[in-house]
Amino acid sequence: MAVAIWLLPDADALPTWVDAHILSFDEQARAERISHIPTRNQFVRCRLLLRTLLASRFDCPPSAIAFTIAPDGKPHLANRADRHFFNVSHTESLIAIAIGPRPLGIDVEVHRDHRDRAGLVDRYFAIEERQQYHALPEALKPAAFLRGWTCKEALLKGTGAGVRDLQNCAIDLDPRLPPRVLRHTDSQPWRLAILPTPNGIAGALALATNEEIEFSPPPTSSAAKT
User: Cα separation of 133 and 35, whole Å?
Assistant: First the structure.
């Protein structure tokens, strides 16, 4: 099953094909309420890019894209929620956007030298993940931790469960093997894929499907123009 992925540098300058004046009144008001300027700018860039990319997919003006918030707090496309799904993640330097035909979640994280990886695993990971992590060779543990964190975040964003369900889902942490879901509480089957992120950043995609995940080529910048 194909999912379109955009991995875009989070720089001050927006791509030339993005109209900087397409946010809704609610989005503008939300941006104004964010006092931390870098966080506000990142929210604005994410929404501008998301609106532009969705509009190119549906062949409509970006201003015609309407969002609704589900009870779990996850945004959806109004009037299209049963056919088209999206998710957004970002770091200090990268914006990741996924659009596909099934519920999905995406997460990107910067590589950091966590001094207490084992403590974080014991506190937030599921029992089978903790057992697997501690049994891995020491050299594989940094990659296993990062895989666990990104894959679990992507899965929980996809299901809408959020971080409250961190210990109620489990994934295979071994970085030598393809990622897979071992356990979750959602009624749908879920697959995982590792994103082709730049060096220094890890990323994962979770998709509600039994099929293998394929990354379809996203539209070119010219196709995303309005």
Answer: 39
Render pLDDT for 116-145 as a digit per residue (tens, 0 to 9). 899 999 999 999 999 999 999 999 999 999
pTM, 2 dp: 0.88
Enter the tokens of residue 86. 């999206």
Sorted by where each begins, the domain ranges of the chain are 2-216
Domain 2-216 belongs to what architecture?
Answer: Alpha-Beta Complex (3.90)
In whole angstroms, what is the distance from residue 220 CA to residue 215 CA? 14
Token reading at 160: 């809408």
pLDDT single digits (tens) 26-54:
888 888 899 998 888 888 888 988 998 89
Residue 82's nearest CA partner among 103, 99, 98 is 103
